[in-house]
Amino acid sequence: MKQPAMIKTASSGLSRPRILMLGSLLALAAAAALLATQAQAQTTEPAAAASAPAATPAPPVVTYYDPKDLERAFKFMDKNGDGKVSRDEASNFRGVSKHFDEADVNKDGFLSREEFDNAMNRSKQP
Questions:
Q1: Which of 15, 22, 37, 109 could staple 6 via S-S, CB 3.0–4.6 A?
Q2: What is the model's pTM?
Q3: pLDDT band at 122 (very low <50, low <70, confident <90, very high)
Q4: Are 106 and 115 in contact (CB under 8 A)?
Q5: How large is the average pLDDT for residues 13-23?
Q6: SS3 letters for the chain?
Q7: What are the backbone dihedrals phi and psi of residue 67, each rounded to the nearest 5 degrees, phi first?
Q8: Is pLDDT above 60 for 103?
Q9: Are 15 and 4 in contact (CB under 8 A)?
């Protein structure tokens, strides 16, 4: 089978595939420019709202670990299945035993699931 000949334009000497590639790049650049101006237009606030004192929003609750992973880890540490991790159960886990007192907010000598989750997610905050 015969290969199609490269077609060159008379004015620039560029081949058809190169012209198509350049056209695609120009179209992408134009689309990016349009999206950038739309994003900027959406983020600007009206003058009245900008001059009014803004209420401080509550910080969003951010979880850094998947709740299912935390549940699996907690159940793994909770050897007797009583729904809490004692200091003895945590002793086999260096990171947990090292920060046990910080995580045990109510100072009952055990980590509840909630205390464990909060401590783990707090440890990963930026």
A1: 15
A2: 0.49
A3: confident
A4: yes
A5: 62
A6: CCCCCCCECCCCCCEHHHHHHHHHHHHHHHHHHHHHHHHHHHHCCCHHHHHCCCCCCCCCCCCCCCHHHHHHHHHHHCCCCCCEEEHHHHCCCHHHHHCHHHHCCCCCCEEEHHHHHHHHHHHCCC
A7: -55, -35
A8: yes
A9: no
Tokens of 39: 């994003």
Structure tokens at 26: 């120009």
Rounded Cα distance, 38 and 46, in Å:
15
Q: Are 104 and 114 in contact (CB under 8 A)?
A: no
**Better-scored residue on pLDDT, 48 or 64:** 64
Nearest to 113 by CA among 67, 61, 79, 80: 67
Domain extents in the chain: 8-43, 67-123
CATH class, domain 67-123, is mainly alpha
Tally of residues, the chain = 126
